[in-house]
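Hi Y.,

Following your request, here is the sequence exactly as I used it, all 359 residues.
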Amino acid sequence: MVPGTFWQKGARYQNAKRCQVPKRKKVPCTNNWGEGYMITKKAYAKVNLSLDIVGFREDGYHLVRMVMQSLDIYDELEFRKIDRPEIRVFLKNEEAVQERAAMADGADASGESTLGSVPLDENNLIYKVAKLLFDKYIWKKSPDSGVEITLSKNIPIAAGMAGGSSDAAATFRGMNELFELNLMDKELMEMATPLGADIPYCIMGGTALSEGIGEVLTRLPNLPECTFLVAKPPISVSTGEAYGGYDGVIAEYEKDPKSFRDFHHPDVDGQVDKIYAGNLKGVADRFGNVLEYVTAKNHPEIKELEQIMKDGGAINSVMSGSGPTVFAIFDSREKAERVKYEIEEKGLANQTFVTIPVF
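Below is the corresponding structure, written out as tokens. Let me know if you'd prefer a different format.
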């Protein structure tokens, strides 16, 4: 385990309710303020069943409408109290993470990965969340307290699966429990929005409609029972570059729409209706992602992966987020496992998962 750097103190739907989160009981004080007390939290990956961009805010942020789903692919974070006013972040499986990063194409001139790596300093969302909660709550009543956070990274990095946002969400939950802050999920979600638009969803989890810049959430019914196959090709994609590329596409589309016959906006409303109806095929038939038009033009392996999944019996397949991760829904685990083996044999992905949705 290699230590990182540390800081030292000196609606549309009548039956839905926005930001509806489970009510939590207040956690009774157990006086677990001593050094060494530790808890573990899971940070679940997400995929976008649909992703549409519907406009822009005055500050330049993209306005989105998308359906999000948590999957049983997760990082693990260990939180341990220390009796020093410090925030320390560690990466437990650094060698494996670096190996995956080296296989991606996000390397700078020195050979160091720029997209597929995990910062362990104040630029890490885990660190930023911990610092926020220390400043706002913990150091006011316990100025000598600190924390060591150890991350075991399993969610693909720079892959359109909200790995960093999910780790941030788990840090909100972990710090809340470890230091007995007794904050409700709604309070955590409000604090999370300035740090990242996907973090509130990652705190909520499950199946949800996401609007605004991603922070306006409507909980949706659980998907019917199904199996997901997820494949991350050995490339990395910058979210900023994907959204910037989309802006360029829109500018060209407005000049000459006939040149963009393959470009279309997903039927997000129709997909939500099929989720309420419990119609899995209807949900999958409405997969769509406007960012795929940008990312797949530069990375043809995305379309290749989608086709292999469909040929192998998937109900449908699509790219998640800004990419390059591709996923599909299957009606049986056996079909998904066969396609997973085929993808691995062809070397089209360096991380593959057969998994299920979590709610």
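Residues 1-31, 106-115 have pLDDT under 50 and may be disordered.

Thanks again,
Q.
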